[in-house]
Design goal:
It is globular and about 45 Å long. The chain is of the alpha/beta class. It has a single domain, classed as Homocysteine-binding-like domain (TIM Barrel), CATH 3.20.20. It is built from twelve helices and 13 strands. α7 links the parallel β3 and β4. The chain has an eight-stranded parallel beta sheet with strand order 1-13-10-9-5-4-3-2, with helices on both faces.
Length: 307
């Protein structure tokens, strides 16, 4: 299922043109005053502060973004099921996508539905709790329900975010692809104790096989995202060994201390934009930001890469 705006954006990427994504949605919602939920991070802001969510999207569009990412990352079916709130997912997603579509309506921007494998985190950190897991059958059913929620809410493509392994991430990506919507797969990376690139929070999953396995699904695009600025370039180098199609780069800046993001060590916008030249040389023509990256960074990217 493709519409004209999405098809035109993908054609530009395939031609090597620069396309601007938005920046961190959840962290900008926090920065603009919406409280973060201990259980669901930024998901509840869709219901409690939709006016802030709308303002965040409009700020990114004013800065030059061409994609509006709906605030649906934290309404993960795993997270909601764990807290006994799964039946709220479609309502949360519907509001998020309605607000995203409203923001995009006068700009020609494309609306992406964010989909994650987010699970409960260790209190005060960004580390996943390992005490509860899901069978493959149960997880696949939950991910299929999430993909349908995004499709029914009006997403024009599904942005798989923080993919990092070949179990939950693979099951989620396959469910998204089965929805009939176009899919982009974003890999999130960190260093393990030996300095090797691994999936974020998955010390047992080296980047090389994860990149190869998810690239084999043949999405419309792949990305390195929610990865430190320092690790983005080497991660792109690994990804490019397994993927020659449209590529995106949107790092994070700062750190998470649940339920809030700490805006510490955030790269200045001009410095961030200068680094993007290296990402483009490795074929990352879709550029944006993740947690901690705000509208001023997107505006700086637009100055660095004018249309």
């Amino acid at each position: 299922m493709r519409n004209a705006a999405y098809a035109a954006l993908l054609q530009r990427l395939r031609a090597g043109e620069c396309v601007l994504l938005d920046g961190g949605v959840g962290t900008e919602i926090q920065r603009q005053g919406a409280p973060m939920s201990t259980a669901l991070w930024c998901a509840e802001a869709n219901l409690s502060h939709p006016e802030i969510v709308l303002r965040v999207h409009r700020d990114y569009l004013a800065a030059g973004a061409e994609v509006v990412t709906a605030n649906t990352f934290a309404s993960s079916p795993l997270l909601l099921e764990h807290f006994g709130r799964l039946d709220e997912m479609e309502r949360i997603d519907a509001v998020a996508l309605r607000v995203a579509r409203e923001a995009a309506s006068s700009s020609g921007a494309v609306v992406a539905g964010s989909m994650s494998t987010m699970r409960p985190t260790v209190p005060g950190s960004d580390r996943t709790q390992q005490s509860h897991g899901w069978t493959e059958e149960a997880a696949r059913a939950l991910f299929a329900r999430k993909a349908a929620s995004l499709r029914n809410g009006g997403a024009e493509f599904i942005l798989m975010e923080m993919m990092r392994d070949l179990d939950y991430s693979l099951w989620a990506c396959e469910a998204a692809l089965a929805s009939g919507l176009p899919v982009w797969i974003g890999l999130s990376v960190e260093r393990n104790a030996e300095g090797r690139l691994v999936g974020f929070g998955r010390q047992d999953c080296e980047l090389e096989p994860v990149a190869a396995g998810l690239a084999a699904l043949r999405p419309d695009a792949m990305a390195i995202m929610h990865t430190s600025v320092d690790d983005t370039l080497p991660a792109l180098e690994v990804l490019r060994r397994h993927w020659s199609g449209p590529t995106a780069a949107y790092p994070e800046c700062g750190r998470y201390e649940a339920p809030d993001w700490k805006f510490i060590g955030v790269a200045p916008p001009d410095e961030y934009a200068a680094l993007s030249r290296q990402w483009r040389r490795l074929g990352a023509h879709a550029l944006g930001g993740c947690c901690g990256v705000g509208p001023e960074h997107i505006a700086s990217l637009r100055r660095e890469h004018p249309r």
